[in-house]
Automatic annotation (TrEMBL), chain A:
Domain ABC transmembrane type-1: 67-289
Compartments where found: Cell membrane
Family in the record: Belongs to the binding-protein-dependent transport system permease family.
Chief site of localization: membrane
Record keywords: Cell membrane, Membrane, Transmembrane, Transmembrane helix, Transport
Entry-linked InterPro entries: ABC_transporter_permease, MetI-like, MetI-like_sf
Species name: Paenibacillus phytohabitans
Residue ranges of the TM segments: 12-33, 71-92, 104-125, 153-181, 202-224, 244-263, 270-292
Protein name: ABC transporter permease subunit
UniProt-listed Pfam families: BPD_transp_1 (PF00528)
Record bears the keyword Membrane: yes
Taxonomic superkingdom: Bacteria
Membrane topology listed for this record: Multi-pass membrane protein
TrEMBL record, chain B:
Name of the protein in its database record: ABC transporter permease subunit
Organism: Paenibacillus phytohabitans
Domain named ABC transmembrane type-1: residues: 70-264
The entry's keywords: Cell membrane, Membrane, Transmembrane, Transmembrane helix, Transport
Subcellular localization: Cell membrane
Segments passing through the bilayer: 12-35, 74-95, 107-127, 139-161, 182-203, 245-264
Major site of localization recorded for this protein: membrane
Gene3D superfamilies, per database record: MetI-like
Matches recorded under Pfam families: BPD_transp_1
Stated family: Belongs to the binding-protein-dependent transport system permease family.
InterPro entries hit by this protein: MetI-like, MetI-like_sf
Membrane topology category: Multi-pass membrane protein
From TrEMBL, chain C:
Keywords recorded for this protein, A-Z: Signal, Transport
Organism this protein belongs to: Paenibacillus phytohabitans
Span of the signal peptide: 1-31
Protein name: Extracellular solute-binding protein
CDD domains noted in UniProt: PBP2_TMBP_like
SUPFAM superfamilies: Periplasmic binding protein-like II
Family classification: Belongs to the bacterial solute-binding protein 1 family.
Length: 300, 278, 462
């Protein structure tokens, strides 16, 4: 009786979310994915080609290069973002004077639109008259400047820009997580004579477990899927050095090069197949992470 | 001991200030850029504007139709926030606290939507659905689609839910509180920090959403949002982008997000403020 | 506390929302004025039609003309102008799913084929008088498909070498280059003369290689008698070998250090801004440049435009004159007669003449270019059509597997390698894609042994 009541209650509470997700999330994805078995250019009739698109993916070195780039990009971004965000959150959580202002400052980058970011970071990083190079040359750290957006350093630059835009987000998430930890836990450990660092290691981190696990998971997914800031900054160039998986995918659906740059052909069919394989890659990595990190999820 | 503290604090502040500096530089360049001429801004040779063009703001305000479109943007963003939080916190509550058939499937579906990105391609089926519902030329279509993309907020709230001791709601249930009442009276208030950050992220996302409002207001220009207006700033009477207006417009459109941040920040503050007693 | 905030904001949102969200299914009484809903409004018997355009450069002018038409026409037609930016194509695609598709659509040389294939356009032959047919040249694949007309030309875009006269004078170079070798040499001389002030001989917007080559290598190839996108109209096959010397020349300029540093991340606007500052000696681009230096980046230098160089100094083809279409009738329009009346007004002599004279574009209608004055824009003279400008036929666009030609060429420019092998590989992949498109997508590509690129020019000026 109670069980039925609980189940009914559960279904009624999950219904709005499930309905919206299925109708406006899953169905449209399925709609797009069915083209992965077709040759379809966005008009005319789609031609069924079975698994042709998938055998093309296997041979598509551009795609696999972009997968490698994605791992470099996501790995770099996460390695910078997560420790920094956690550190800042821990520092700005309690006590420190001026923490309100600092939190606000660290949040600022996350509100700036990607289109504006492109202009600003070009001003900073371009090798001809970029602010950073002028600065380095003046300080005598470099003779003729560094080609930040050139083939050698473009990936590093793109990672730095992405980390700049993301630290504030994860800092806020960690901060919110820290706020969930009851104050008396700290008081108890302070009485035991624990130092700040010991407190962080033995009290904060374990208590933050579930939130941290989820936030890192979201960070991984976001980093693997990120492409917008790369698109505006380098368009994946020079010569594919910063082309990540989802940028490659985006270009299949919406070829860049408007104006009079010739007629562009949209590859709906092949794009859908690439989207599917990309989703599987993201899914597998997320699952690996999830199982590897399940210790974090043990509350109490 | 005392010297160590002072030394530690100095290192701490050097780190904080250095990082704050790095963080702010691009923001400052954006703000300064919004006062330059297009040529000066695009040439990129100067840091400070050689002369201050406050008129960029007047132009951006007028060309992007700020006064007219801001209300539409607010409606979309606030509705998306309320809808997203409601839908995801309800789901997070039962998924964490209850056991029912289909729970794993539900979690699987939510994760799946996060793994996939087919970009604007899914717009077509979404739009077709809205045509059937006669919502294709209304902001409700936009709002519903925005709310439907709540997977990450759901997972965030789900993890916060785990941090709320089960004893609290179990005690309430034993005292005879219904499940709905427990959610409303016990869980939601304790979920404050998670809801705050979720609200902020949803607001920001909805405020910056461009393609959906563009498509859903095709035939009703009076329903357009600010982002659509801002996009129009990009092109003027010649083939080059009006980057100076774009920057001024961007600086203006950031302000509501910062206001939202101030509100959300209060939810991170609650506990800390109450704990200053020690 | 949280709950109260939530409730308050929710009711606020609901109240605001109901007031302003608009609602697609409310039967009548919808307060959306001028929104182009079917003509249910009471006032008179106005026929409402909508015109959608992605153009912003002429928006004020077109708005003025639409207002003029709305005031003056005696048929009770009211045109609503909808100006869309970047995502015009997406919006148009979706509008054809609804009953709100526009009546008149702005089409371009790289969208009209797609729109035609998607069935968005209606032929206009039934409205065309013999006089109109004579006045507006028919151009296969640009405004004519399967023998039917779908649009008429208004203005076109030419491509030229844009050069910094001051830097030329400083380097002691008299004339703009006419061959690839001269281009390489001039870039070198200009760099030697200008480098101390941070000026370089040549630049292109290689952030997007396709955008860079489509305005530069393309026109050099076309002037030299090759298809600008690697398609050979004589054999109806892809053959990129015509581009080989051009790519090599660009690579030479880069290797010589005569190219602006950082071109690999350079967008077109920063390029223009640097040119206006005098930091770039030459680049190749479209006839939209003079407007940019008039309105956005006031040039601090004396500059001019000259015909693009050819491979060896011999003009064997025509410099592409891009255009051939402007307005099209929507296949979904329920008021085609009224829509045509609006089109007729827009294609009237007065509007077209004003269009050129006010500097929005160079007329492509012979009877207009004969009488319209040169636009009052500095530097436009060099862009006006000459005997070597002509309209190229449309090549069959394909999606090859693997790297696109532009990316492959730019990769060679940066990393070196064997260009002949690159070209052989491109030919193989593009032709395979072409064969597949012919077999499966109904693309037509027929050899034309008599195709004469040199004969394309001379139709717009002697």
């Amino acid at each position: 009786m109670n069980k039925t009541k609980n189940a009914l209650f559960s279904y009624s509470f999950i219904f709005p979310s499930a309905l919206l997700t299925i109708v406006l999330g899953i169905y449209p994805i399925a709609w797009a994915f069915r083209y992965m078995f077709y040759d379809y250019k966005g008009y005319g009739t789609a031609r069924f080609t079975g698994l042709d698109n998938f055998s093309r993916i296997l041979k598509d070195t551009q795609f696999w290069d972009s997968v490698v780039n994605t791992f470099v990009y996501a790995g770099g971004k996460l390695l910078i973002t997560i420790p920094l965000a956690l550190l800042l959150a821990a520092i700005l959580n309690r006590g420190l004077r001026g923490r309100q202002l600092l939190r606000g400052i660290f949040f600022m980058p996350t509100v700036i639109s990607t289109a504006v970011m492109a202009v600003v970071f070009f001003t900073i990083f371009n090798s001809y008259n970029g602010i950073l190079n002028q600065f380095l040359i003046k300080l005598g750290l470099s003779d003729s400047g560094i080609d930040w957006l050139g083939p050698k350093y473009a990936m590093l630059t793109v990672i730095l820009v992405a980390a700049w835009g993301a630290v504030g987000n994860y800092m806020l998430l960690f901060l919110a997580g820290l706020q969930n930890i009851p104050e008396d836990v700290y008081e108890a450990s302070a009485l035991d004579g624990a130092s700040k660092i010991q407190q962080f290691r033995y009290v904060t981190l374990p208590m933050l477990g579930p939130v941290m696990q989820m936030v890192i998971m979201l960070a991984i997914i976001t980093a693997l899927k990120g492409y917008e800031s790369i698109m505006v900054l380098t368009e994946g160039g020079p010569v594919g050095k910063t082309e990540v998986m989802f940028l490659y995918l985006y270009k299949l659906f919406f070829p860049i090069g408007g104006g009079s740059a010739g007629v562009q052909v949209q590859e709906f069919g092949y794009g859908s197949a690439v989207a599917f394989v990309s989703a599987i890659i993201v899914g597998i990595i997320s699952l690996i992470y999830f199982y590897a990190s399940r210790r974090m999820n043990q509350t109490d | 001991m005392r010297i160590r503290t002072i030394l530690g604090n100095t290192v701490l502040w050097i780190f904080l200030l250095a990082f704050a500096f790095i963080t702010l530089i691009p923001v400052v360049i954006t703000v300064l850029g919004s006062f330059k001429t297009n040529a000066e801004l695009t040439t990129g040779a100067t840091f400070l504007p050689s002369s201050w063009h406050f008129s960029n703001y007047a132009e951006a305000w007028q060309q992007a139709n700020f006064s007219k479109y801001t209300l539409n943007s607010l409606i979309i963003s606030l509705s998306a926030v309320v809808g997203t939080l409601l839908v995801s916190s309800m789901a997070a509550y039962v998924v964490d606290r209850m056991d029912f058939f289909g729970k794993k499937i539900y979690i699987g579906l939510q994760s799946f939507t996060m793994f996939v990105a087919v970009g604007a391609v899914v717009l077509r089926p979404q739009f077709d659905l809205m045509v059937k519902l006669h919502l294709h030329s209304s902001l409700w279509g936009v709002i519903l689609i925005l709310i439907s993309a709540h997977a990450s907020i759901f997972f965030i709230l789900f993890s916060f839910m785990k941090g709320i001791p089960r004893e609290l709601d179990e005690a309430a249930l034993i005292d005879g509180s219904s499940l709905g009442r427990t959610f409303w009276r016990i869980i939601l208030p304790l979920l404050g920090p998670g809801l705050g950050v979720g609200a902020l992220f949803t607001f920001r996302g909805a405020w910056n959403e461009y393609l959906l409002p563009l498509v859903f207001t095709m035939t009703k220009p009076e329903l357009q949002t600010l982002t659509v207006g801002l996009a129009n700033l990009k092109y003027g009477i010649s083939a080059a982008s009006q980057t100076h207006y774009m920057m001024a417009g961007a600086c203006l459109s950031i302000l509501p997000i910062l206001v939202a941040y101030l509100f959300a920040n209060k939810s991170f503050m609650q506990m800390t403020a109450g704990s200053l007693k020690g | 506390m949280m709950k109260r905030t939530l409730m308050t904001s929710m009711s606020l949102v609901l109240a605001l929302g109901l007031a302003a969200c608009g609602n697609g299914n409310s039967g009548g009484g919808n307060a959306a004025e001028g929104s182009g809903d079917a003509a249910t409004g009471g006032s008179g018997e106005k026929t409402k039609i909508s015109y959608w355009t992605g153009d912003r450069h002429d928006a004020d002018f077109v708005k003025e003309k639409v207002a003029e038409f709305n005031r003056a026409n005696t048929d009770g037609i009211e045109v609503e102008l909808v100006v869309k930016g970047d995502d015009f194509d997406t919006a148009l695609d979706l509008s054809f799913q609804t009953s709100d598709a526009p009546d008149v659509i702005r089409v371009k040389e790289n969208t009209i084929q797609t729109f035609y294939k998607k069935g968005f356009l209606a032929p206009i032959d039934e409205f065309l008088t013999d006089e109109l047919k004579a006045k507006f040249p028919a151009m296969p694949d640009l405004n004519e498909f399967d023998g039917k007309r779908y649009s008429l030309p208004n203005y076109g875009t030419t491509m030229r070498l844009v050069y910094n006269k001051d830097l030329f004078a400083k380097a002691g170079v008299e004339n703009p280059p006419t061959t690839l070798q001269e281009l390489v040499d001039t870039a070198k001389k200009l760099t030697e003369a200008g480098k101390a002030d941070g000026a370089y001989g040549f630049a292109l917007n290689f952030k997007s290689p396709s955008s860079a080559f489509a305005r530069s290598a393309r026109v050099i190839a076309e002037m030299s008698g090759y298809g600008g996108f690697g398609y050979d109209f004589k054999t109806a096959r892809y053959d990129f070998s015509g581009l080989e010397p051009i790519i090599n020349a660009f690579k030479q300029i880069k290797d010589d250090g005569s190219m602006l540093p950082g071109v690999e991340s350079l967008d077109i606007d920063p390029l223009r801004a640097q040119f206006a500052e005098g930091k770039i000696g030459m680049y190749i681009s479209y006839s939209s440049e003079p407007g940019v230096y008039k309105n956005q980046f006031p040039a601090k230098i004396d500059w001019a435009a000259a015909p693009a160089p050819t491979i060896d100094g011999m003009v064997k083809g025509a410099s592409g004159f891009l255009g051939g279409q402007w307005l099209s009738l929507s296949s979904k329009s329920e008021n085609k007669e009224a829509a045509w009346k609006f089109m007729q007004f827009m294609y009237g002599d007065q509007v077209l003449t004003d269009y050129q004279e006010k500097g929005f574009g160079i007329s492509m209608v012979p009877s207009i270019s004969a009488v319209a004055a040169t636009p009052d824009v500095n530097g436009i003279e060099g862009f006006l059509p000459n005997k070597n400008d002509g309209v190229w036929p449309i090549y069959p666009a394909v999606a090859p597997e693997g790297m696109k030609s532009d990316d492959a060429f730019f990769k060679y420019m940066l990393n070196g390698g064997d260009l002949k092998a690159v070209i052989a590989d491109l030919n193989k992949r593009y032709n395979a894609a072409l064969d597949s498109a012919i077999a499966n997508d109904g693309i037509k590509a027929e050899p034309d042994a008599g195709f004469d690129p040199a004969g394309l020019g001379g139709k717009f000026a002697k």
